[in-house]
Design brief:
The chain is mainly β. The protein contains 1 helix and 10 strands.
Length: about 220
């Protein structure tokens, strides 16, 4: 009975989503991404001072192919990072939280069976907070970013509905405007404005990769 039930469920799913096709005009999809990065180091000679870093990020997206192999997609990302600086007596933590939202068009080209290479062109807005913990007069900061840039993506279709993506968690090349403030318990210490051309991905490419997925939704039968 169990085997019959499993076969019945698989049959329904295959029938329901048989019209899903990556790259087809009007095909809709939802997506997600996950980014996890940890590191640690200790200082010689007695190794009593050490630093630990952890980053966790998730993203969700919705998109539609407005024409063949041209994807229009909206994305929201959340990221949390914690840096711990420790010695024999104290542990100082720096906690950062990021909320960002963006839109881009991704132009795909099939480079091999089930393999697609794409380049995304679009913009992103970001809000970031940073706060220190466990010190008498902690520093806090707020940053607002607006970015226009290019992002490469490599996608592999592992099934009729699922596509796995590898892409940078930061832009490949971008123009960035940033406004920020730094404060402590006494009030605002500094304000800053900047406009820059940045290729942040190349600073540490292996640490800037994120893995995500697309899930193809059912298309209407024409």
């Amino acid at each position: 009975m169990k085997n019959v039930t499993i076969f019945f469920i698989i049959s329904i799913l295959n029938t329901q989503y048989i019209h899903a096709q990556f790259g087809k005009q009007n095909q809709q999809l939802i997506g997600g991404s996950f980014n996890l990065n940890t590191s640690a180091n200790k200082t010689a000679p007695n190794f009593t001072s050490q630093q630990k870093n952890g980053v966790l990020g998730i993203g969700i997206s919705y998109g539609k192919f407005i024409k063949k192999n041209t994807l229009s997609i909206f994305t929201i990302n959340l990221m949390n990072s914690v840096q711990k600086n420790m010695n024999t007596t104290t542990e100082v933590r720096t906690i950062s939280n990021i909320l960002s939202a963006g839109y881009k068009k991704v132009y795909f080209k099939e480079i091999a069976k089930n393999w697609f290479a794409g380049i995304g062109v679009g913009g992103n807005i970001l809000f970031q907070t940073m706060a220190q913990k466990n010190i008498p007069n902690p520093i806090q900061s707020k940053n607002y970013d607006a970015t226009m840039g290019l992002t490469p993506i490599l996608s592999y279709q592992i099934s009729n509905r699922f596509i796995v993506n590898i892409q940078p968690s930061t832009s490949f090349l971008n123009v960035n405007y940033q406004y920020g403030t730094v404060s402590d318990n006494t009030g605002i210490l500094t304000k800053s404005n900047s406009l820059s051309l940045d290729a942040g991905f190349f600073n540490s490419p292996l640490n800037n990769l994120s893995i995500g997925f697309y899930y193809l939704l059912k298309n209407k039968i024409n």
